[in-house]
Amino acid sequence: MSDRTLSKPVLGIESSCDETGVAVYAAGRGLLAHRLYSQVRLHAAYGGVVPELASRDHVRKLLPLARETLAAAGVGLRELGGVAYTAGPGLVGALLVGAACARTLAWALEVPAIGVHHMEGHLLAPLLEPDPPAPPFVALLVSGGHSMLVHVAGIGRYRLLGDTLDDAAGEAFDKTAKLMGLPYPGGPALARLAEQGRAGVYRFARPMTDRPGLDFSFSGLKTQVLLAWQASDRSEQTRADIARAFEEAIVETLTIKCRRALAATGAHTLVIAGGVGANRRLREQLAEAGAREGFRACFPRLEFCTDNGAMIALAGALRLAAGQHADAAIRVFPRWELASLPAVAA
């Protein structure tokens, strides 16, 4: 791969679940354009993501969105130096749509392509900000499918510190919202409702904070909420009070574990990424803890907390610049360990 190729823009494609994201990123120039299409309205009637419908909608939207993004970036297809796409984890059908499109484009343009780990994309999303964090740091990755703490010594040099034993934080938000009758998508709806709740009316446990370790478990918290809701008058104010207590329990649990991870590793920088990283209470509490205790809390902007093509384009560009790419075979990994990724030389 030539130096000239490495300086060319990289097209990034995200299609791991129910959002189609496309972006163009160029080394030295940064993010040139990004576009996102959400399938929320499509799946709302079913109360959750229907995998086959998600795959079909990616087929329908991906190429038009790619054309729109390239036009917004002012980049022609022949100007691309590589293509990056989410290869996993995620829904296998949705992943295959993005992988097939990316590999076909790369083959036709005779440029390299690389499959990106979805959670590495989230982990690196803060690097899109004007003052990006530098390794080593601790990353809290919290989304609908993941709640993990990772020590990051460099790109591809990841050590898992703690993981969820059952429900991820975002999954707990969604399931709790559903059991209280909130509309889909439940997590954001519950967070909005929590703003109307009164402090101290309900209090739920901070799971697994009374014992050593950095693992998470949120299924018991969900059960506590269910019992409280069933025993309540089920008024709108009560619903809001329970939502606030639930959110406070999640946020305080995550904060306690983050502080432990920083102390255990000696790191002074905390990166928070993933969909739950958009939660206002979590951002405020970790920022306040950082100011009080002397660590830096780094968040991507809100539009890059949820799934997006920008994080995939960035992660792919970094790995392509390091000479990493694969053959033309279309491969995806619905389950994929983050720690298994190869390192990128500093």
UniProtKB/TrEMBL annotation:
Binds 1 Fe(2+) ion per subunit. It is found in: Cytoplasm. Residues 31-313 form the Gcp-like domain. GO terms for biological process: tRNA threonylcarbamoyladenosine modification. Keywords: Acyltransferase, Cytoplasm, Iron, Metal-binding, Transferase, tRNA processing. Pfam families: TsaD (PF00814). This is tRNA N6-adenosine threonylcarbamoyltransferase. The lineage of its organism: Bacteria, Pseudomonadati, Pseudomonadota, Gammaproteobacteria, Lysobacterales. The gene is tsaD.
